Amino acid sequence: MARLADYFVVVGYDFDKRASSESQGQILQRFPEKDWEDNPFPQGIELFCQPSGWQLLSERKPPTFFVAVLTDINSERHYCACFTFWESVGDLQTQKSQPREAVEDEDHGIVQPTQLFAPKSLVLVSRLDHTEVFRNCLSLMYTVHIDHLNVQLETLIGNLLTCIIPIAGGSQRTITLGAGDRQVIQTPVNDSLPVSGCSVALLFRQLGILNVLYLFCAALTEQKILFLSSSYQRLSDACRGILSILFPLKYSFTYVPILPGKLLEVLSSPTPFIIGVNSFFRSETQELLDVIIADLDGGTVTVPECVHVSLLPEPLLHQTKTVLSMVMDPELQYADHAFPPTSIQSSALKIQDKEIRAVFLWLFAQLFQGYRWCLHIIRIHPEPVIRFHKAAFLGQGSMTEDDFLNKVLDGMAFAGFVSERGPPYRATDLFDDLMANDMERIKMEEGHPCKILKHIKELAEHLFKNENPYPSVAMHKIQKPTEGSHLRIHQKIFPSLDEVAVQFRIDHAASSQKSAPPVVKPEKKCLVLSGPPIAAMVDRNGSALANSARRLEVVRNCITYIFENKLLEAKKLLPAVLRALKSRVARQCLTQELNLHAQQNRAVLDDLQFDYIVRMMNCTLQDCSHMDEHGIAAALLPLVTVFCRKLGAGITQFAYSCVQEHSVWMNMQFWEAMFYSDVQNHIRALYIEENESCDQDNGEQMPGGKSALEIAAVQRRLWPTLCKEKQLELVQKEESTVFSQAIHYANRMSYLLLPLDTSKNRLLNRSGLGDVESVSNSYVTNSIAGSMAESYDTESGFEDAEGSDVANTVVRFINRFVDKVCTESGVTNEHLKTLHTNIPDIVQMHIETLEAVHRESKRLPPIQKPKLLRPSLLVGEELVMEGLRVNLMSDGRDEATGGVSGGLALLPAEGAIFLTTYRLIFKGTPTDPLVGEQVVTRSFPIASLTKEKKISFPAQMEPYFGEGLQLRSCTFQLMKIAFDEEVSSDLVELFRKHLHKLRYPQQVQGTFAFTVGQSAKTLVETKSKEKNQSLKTLSKNLMKNAKKTIGRQYVTRKKYTPPTWETRSGAQFATDEDDISISEEPDQSSLTLSSTIKSSDRQTMSNVVERACCRDYQRLGLGTLSNSLTRSKNEPFRISTVNRMYTVCRSYPGLLIVPQSIQDPTIQRISRCYRHNRFPVVCWRNSRTKAVLLRSAGLHGKGVAGFFKSPNAPTAGPSQTDSTSLEQEKYLQAIIKSMPSYSEATGRNTLSGFSSAQMSSSGKWGSIRVNNRMSSYNPDIGTRLAAKDIPPPQANGGPSETHFLRQQRAYLYIIGDKSQLKGTKQDPFQQWEVVPIEVFDIRQVKNSFKKLMKACVPSSVSNESNMTFYRCLEDSEWLCLLHKVLQVSVLVVELLDSSSSVMVSLEEGWDITTQVVSLVQLLSDPYYRTMEGFRLLVEKEWLSFGHRFSHRGAQTLASQSSGFTPVFLQFLDCVHQIHLQFPMEFEFSQYYLKFLAYHYVSNRFRTFLLDCDCERIELGVMYEEKGERKNQTVYKSVWDYIDKLNKKTPIFFNYMFSPEDGEVLKPYSHISNLKLWDFYTYETLSEGPSYDWELVHGRYEQPDESDRQDTASQKSQRKIVWPCYDNRSKVEPDAITKLLQELQSLEVELGLVSEKWKDTWDKIKATQRTETKLESRHSLFSPLLLSSNLSHQRRTQGMYLQESVGSSINLLESENIATSTPSGSMASGRRSTSTLYSQFQTSESEHRSLEGVLYKKGAILKPWKPRWFVLDKTKHQLRYYESKIDKDCKGVIDLAEVESIIQGTPSMGAPKNIDEKAFFDLKTTKRFYNFCAPDSHNAQLWIDSIQSCLSDA
C-alpha cells in the first residue's frame, strides 16, 4: 500500500525577483508542511512547473497539464503532476505594498481586468505514476475554484493526501475527494512490468520504426539521447515509451523527461542520459556534438558524425523491423493482393502499444536466450551473490565479435538485470515465463512472420491485462469546468488555503492507519526456470574441418598413440592434428581426451611424449582469444598442472611452464570467471547429499543431479525456517570455501605468470595485462625448455611493472585479483589479510621450485635437427656468412601452407639462411613429415632488398625462436625467418650488419657486378692485365683531353650531382643557370672529333659512336657520322657532337640528332632553358609520314615557358633572353620544316610576314603574339587525358565520333606537364600546339609499388573484409598508373601516325618521358619488337639518355634515403600488357621481360648500373675490351648473357611471332583490359627464382639421367606438379619446346651433332611457308601454329582515352577523314599472317583495317554519292555502307578481282572544291570504279592501303 499523493504544492510567480517580464517561481503553500519520514520533499519543484521560465503574458492562456519526473539521491523517481492556469495581475506596486488578505477584503474577492497574466501551478508529488488520476484530481480542484462550487478546497486536498491505494496486485480501488466525484484506480497485476498506456505507440507514430530502433539501440549502448518537442506532455510520454521498450532492462542513468531551461548545462555532462527539452531551446542544443537528438514534432532523429550507434545483430534487426511493420501497418502485406481481406485494420492505440512492447519482449528473449546457464552463484547465504559469465554466453551464441551485444553486456543496465533476475528463488513475471517456456516456440517460428505475429499478439494480451485487469469497468465521475471559464474577465485569485484544516485531516487519517491492522500480502516466490540452453551453433569459420568426424578421429588416435608410446605413429599424425586443431570442435575433443588420460592428477611422461602434449596444448591455445569464449583454456587449466616429466631426482617439470605465452593467462576476467566457476561447484557440493557428492565436480549439471541454481533456490526457500545457529554455520562454510579457492587460485596464477627463468627480473614479452593485441605464445621442448629467458628481455607486460622484479609484479597482480573476487564473495577481512600475507610466500616458493627446473632443463640432450643443405652458387658468387639455422615461416600467401587452397604444407620449413655476395638464400625442408623429402628454396638478390625489420613469432606449434626477421625484396619475394635458439643474438646482429653493408655499398664499385670473382686468385690476374692500356685509362685520358682541348676561356662546369629528391617546379632550377655569357664560349663547331682526342683514343670513340646507336639513326634515315662531319644541306637532320664531352648535358649521350640548320652554339644556349640542360633532340622518325619524335626535360620557369605564355610587360630592348627565345623558336621551326607535309602545304612560316619592329615591340616572344588571337587548338586534350571531359560513348563501345583534334592539325605537338604550362595560350600563326597533361609524381610510383608488394606478397593473413587481395590491388593504384602511361603513349602514336611530329617534354626528362618515348617507338616500329631492336631501344632511350638507374634503384648508400622507385619495371609491365594483347607481334617471350625485370635490380650485371653514359665512361665500364667477351665465365652485360642463353635454349623466343610489316599497335589501356603481371605473384619453392639460368639448368640436368635409369622399367608416365613448388614451364613444357627437346635428345642418342634450336625452327618455318603457298588461299593455319593458345589476340583497335566510362575515342577520326583503325595504319604485310587473327575476332567491326567516307560515282547516268567504305584486309574486301552507323552492307568489291589502282581525274558531277589529287580509280575484271576522297592525303592513304592488300595476296 502507498499514498496516492505525497505532497500538494501551490507555486506562483515571484514578483520580488522579477527582472523585466521574467522572474522565478515560489512555493506559496505546501501540504503537508513537514516532510514524510519515508519520502522527503523534493527540492526545485518551482523550476519544473514552468520549464521555459516564469513569464508574464499579455493574454490569458488555457490551463495546461503535464507530468515531470524528479530523481532523488537514492535514485527514487518522484512524479510531479503540474496543473497551470493564468491569473490576471493588477498594479504591481499595489501587489507589492499590500498583503494579499487586504486586497481580497477590499475588493471582496473580485479583481479588475488588467493586461498582464501570471502563471500559477497546482502540483501533486507522488511516487506512483497515475497520470490520468492526477489530471482528474487537479482538474477537479480547478473546477471548484473557477466555478465557485460549494466545496472546501481544504477538504479535497486533505482527502487526496490521505488516500491509500495498493501498488500492484491487479485490484481496483474507488476513490473520491468529496466533491461528488468518483474514480476507479486499477493497479497493475505485476509491478515489475512497466505501465505505458499509449506512450510507446505514440512514440512510433511520431518517429517511425527505424528511428525508434536507433534510439532503442542508443539507449542500450549508453549513448546520450535528447528529445525535442513543443509539448511537455509529449516529452514525458516519449521518455516513458523508450523506458517501456527497454524492459526487462532498467535505465540507470540520468532520466529527466522535462528539463527546465535554467538547467540546460546538464546536457554537457559526460554521462549518458535521456532528457526532454522544449523546442524553444533548440538553438542551444546545436553545439552538442555527442548527443542524439530526436525531434518529436518533426519526426527526425539526428545522429552526430562522431557518434557510432551499434545496431542489433542480423538477422534479428531485419526480423524486428518486419514484425514491427506488421504491427504498425497490417495492411502492408495485403496491399498488392487483388482481393485483400476486408477486416484488416490496425489495432486500437492501447492494444497497438502492447503489441509493440511484445515485439521488444520477444526480441530480448532471443538476445538473452540461455543467459541463466551462464550465471555463477558464488554465495547462497546470507544473500545470493551471482556473477554472469559473459565470455561463455558470447561463445555459445557465436556472438563474440558483435559490437552491440558486447556493449549491452558490459553496460550498467545489464548488471542490474543480473542482480535483479539472477537469484533463482524469487517472484517471476512475464519475461521469466517467456524465457523458461517459449524459447522452443520462438525457434520454431523463425522465418514465419505470421506465426511470430500470432505469438506477439498473445504476449500483448498479457501486457494489456497487466495494466487493465478490469477493462470493462469505467465508473469515473469528474466534474469539469464550464466551457470557456478560463476566458472570463473577472476571475477570483486562487485563495490561500487553511493549513490547519488540511493538516488536521492528514493527522486524523494517519492515526486511523496506525490503529488498523497491517495488511500482510503473501510474497509469491518460486523457482526460476533456466529454460533451454543456447543451441549449438555452427563454427563461424564454416570449415569442413570443424564437422569432420574423420579429423576428430585423427586427434583421438594421435593422443592414444602418444600415451601408448607409439611415438613413430604419433609423429606421422601430428601435422594433421595441428591443422585440425584450427577447429573449435577439435580443440574441445583434445581437452576431453587429455582429461580421460590424466590419472591421479599426475601423468608422468617421457621427454618426447611431453613434447607432443605441450605442442598440442600450445596449438590449441593459440587460436583462443583472450576471452576464452569457448572454454578451451578453462578446460586446459587443470590439465597443465597434471602432465609433467621428470628432470632429475625430485625435480619435475609441469606443462604449465611451457604454455605461458598466451594472452588468455593475462586477462583478469578469465581468472575471475574460472574462480567463480570453481567456487560454484564447491558451494554446490556443500548442499548435495553425501552419496551424490562424488559425481558433482565435473560440471554444472550431472545426470540425475541438480544444478547449482536449483540447489540455491531450495536453500533460499528453507533459509527462513533454519535456526540462527544453522544459518551461521552455513554462512561460515560458504565463506571458508571461497577462501580456500582464493588460495588455490593464487597458486594457479603464479604457475602461469612466473616465467621459467626468473633471474633476469623481467617478465614475458607481453604488452599488457588483458591486452588482446599481443598474442605471443611459447612452446618449450627438450633442449629449449631452459632457454625461455631469452624472451623475457623485453619490457614487462604487467601494469606498474617498470623496474620491478618478477616476484613483486606477480604478487601485485594476484593481490588485485584476490581483492576483487573476495570482496564480491563476502570474504571476511581477517581472511583477506591472511591471503595478502600468504601470496608473497606462495610466489617465492614457486620461484625456488622453478630455479631447480630451469637448471635441470639445460642438461637435457639436444633435439636432433635436420642437416643443413648448402645452396648452389654462381661463378664468382661467394659466401659471406655460413648458414644460420632458421625456420622459414609462412607469410600472407596461402599457397604454400596447405590452407584454404589445399595442397601440401611446404611452409613452415626448417633449414638455414645463407648470405652471399650476390643473394640471400634459404634452403631447407618442410617441417611437415609428409613432405619432408622435398627441398624448399627461397632466394632473392641482396640488391633488391627494400625493407628489413625485426619481428616476433608466436611459437605455438613450432620450436621456440628468440628472434625473427622479415626481409622484403622488390623482386616480389618475402622471407619471414625465425632464428633457431642456437643462433646467438650477436650472430643475428652480425648477419644484419653484413646484409646492410652489401645492400648499400659506399660506391657503385662495391656492387656484385663489380666485385664478382675478386678472390685472391683473380686479383693477381687483374694486376697483370693492368700492364696494358686498359679501357679505364683511355676513359680518363678522354676526359682529360676534353678539358685541354676546350681551352681555358671556357669555364668548366661543376660536376653534375643528382638531386636527392624530385623537384617538380622549374623555379628551383632557374637559379642553377650557368653564369657564362655567350661571347665567352668558343665556337664549338670547330672542335671536331679528330681534334679533341688522340689517335690512341679513337678506338674508344668508335665505341662511343656505336653505343650512341648511330646504326639505328642510319636505319631511320636520320643521318650518319662521316669523317668530315659534314652533311648535305638538303637533309633535314644531322648528328651533332656538341655533347661529345658531356659538357652541354651530362645525362645525354655524346652524339645527338638535331635539325641541320641549328648550329652547336645555339644548342648550348637553348639547353639552358630546360631542366638539367636536357634540350629537345630527335630520337625516332616515322618511315612513312616522316614525322619525328623528340624528347626533352620540362621547362625552367623563365625558359621556354615564356614562349607559351603571354607576357604583358614589354622590355626596354633586346636582351640575351630575347635572342635565346628566338633561337628556340627557330629550333622548333627547323623541326617542322623537316616534315614533308610542311613542304607540301601552301603553309605558313611563323617568322615570315613580321617586321623586325614587330618582333621587338612586344618584348620577349612578341614576334608571335602581335595579334593576340587564339588558334584552333583544342584545349580539351589535356583535360580529357586527365579524365575531366568525358565524351559520350557509342552504344557498341567503339570509337567516338568526336572531332578530338582539329582537322587542320599542327605540325608539332608538345606534350607537357599541365602544372608547368598553366596560362598557356596558342597563337594562330604557330605550327605547333601544346598538349598539357597531368602526369603522376615519382612519389606516387613509389607509394603505389609499396602497396602493390604488400598486396601480392602480404606479410600476414588478414581476415578483414576490406583487406582482400583485389581490394589491396585496387588501393595500390598500380594499374591506374599503367593506364595513364599507355594512354599518353597511344596518343603520341596516333599523332605521329597522322603526320604530326611530337615532342615529349615531361618532368626531368628521364622517368615518364623515357617511358612514353620508349613505348611509342615500340608501338610504332616493328623493329623494336624484335630481340635485337628491344635491346637497342633500352640502350638508346634508357641507358644513353640517362635514366637514373642507380638513384631510382637505391643502389648505393648515398641513394638509400631516396628509396626504390620502379620506373623501368613500370615500363616493362606496360610492354607485358601490350604483349598480352598482341602476342604475335613480339619476337621475345614474356619470360624475356621477367628476366629483365629481375636482373635490372639484381646488380649481377653492369648494364643497369650508374645514371648516365658519362658516369659509365668515367668508371671505365662503358665498353669492354673485345678480347674479354670471348669465353667469359662471368658476364658483365645482361645482353651478352641473353645472347648466350638464346643460342642454347628457346626460353626467350616467342613461337607465335608472326608480325605484320609496318604494323602500328594501339593497345587498349583501360584498367579492365590490363592484367596483373604474374611476375608479381609467381613463385617456385623447388628452385627459387628461375632467372639465374646456370643454377636452375644444372639442377634439372642431373635428375633427368638418373630418372631415365631408375624409371626405365616403370610403366607409369604420371607426373605430379605442385603449384607454388614446381616450375611448370620446365616440368611440363609447351608442345614446341618439348618437340625441340626430344629432337635434340634423339640426335644425342644417334651420335649426331646436335643442331641449334634456332636453325631447326627456321627450317620448320621455311617449310611451312612453302606448304602455305601450295595450299589454296582459304587455308588458314599450319598444324604447328594451331597448337598455340591465344587468349587476347587483336590488332590495333583505336585509342581509348576515356575508358573509365567505356568510351573509345579515336584521336584522328571524323566523318570526312579516313583513318587507320583496327588492323594498323601501315598497309603492307603478308596476307597469310593477317588472316591468322580472323578466328579470334568476334565482331565485324574488328575486321576494319581502314574506314572512312569516299565519294563513289554510280553507274551510267548516276551521280556521285558519299558512302562509308571499309577496307577489310582479313577478308580481302572493300565494302561500302550508306553511313557509318549502317550495319547492312550495300556492296562488296573483292580485291582478288582488282587489276589496278591509279590516280584519277574529276568527271562530270564530281564534288566541288576538292583537290584533283583526291580522285583515284579502281579497275577490276568486271568494271571500272571512280572514287573521291576528302583530300589528297586521304586519297593517297586509300591507294597505299589497297595496294598493300594486293601485294599481300
Can you describe this structure?
This protein has 1849 residues and is α+β, with helices and mostly antiparallel strands. The strands form twelve sheets. Strands 39, 40, 41, 42, 43, 44, 45 and 46 form an eight-stranded antiparallel sheet that branches. A seven-stranded antiparallel sheet has the order 26-25-24-23-29-28-27. The protein has a six-stranded antiparallel sheet with strand order 4-3-2-7-6-5. A hairpin with a 6-residue loop joins strand 32 and strand 33 (1188-1192). Helix 5 runs parallel beside helix 17 (499-515), helix 9 (316-328) packs antiparallel against helix 10 and helix 10 crosses helix 16. The protein is globular. The N and C termini lie far apart (113 Å).
Could you give a quick summary of the protein structure above?
The radius of gyration is 47 Å and the shape is globular. It has 58 helices and 46 strands. Helix 4 runs antiparallel to helix 5, helix 18 (549-563) packs antiparallel against helix 19 (567-580) and helix 19 (567-580) packs parallel to helix 21.
Which percent bin holds the helix content?
25-40%
Largest sheet: 8 strands, antiparallel
Structural class, from helix and strand content?
Answer: alpha+beta
Q: Would you identify the regions where 5 or more consecutive residues have pLDDT less than 50?
A: 91-112, 536-546, 693-704, 761-803, 955-960, 1016-1099, 1123-1127, 1198-1217, 1242-1303, 1595-1611, 1672-1742
Could you tell me the number of beta strands?
46
Compute the gyration radius: what is it? 47 Å
What is the first-to-last residue Cα distance?
113 Å
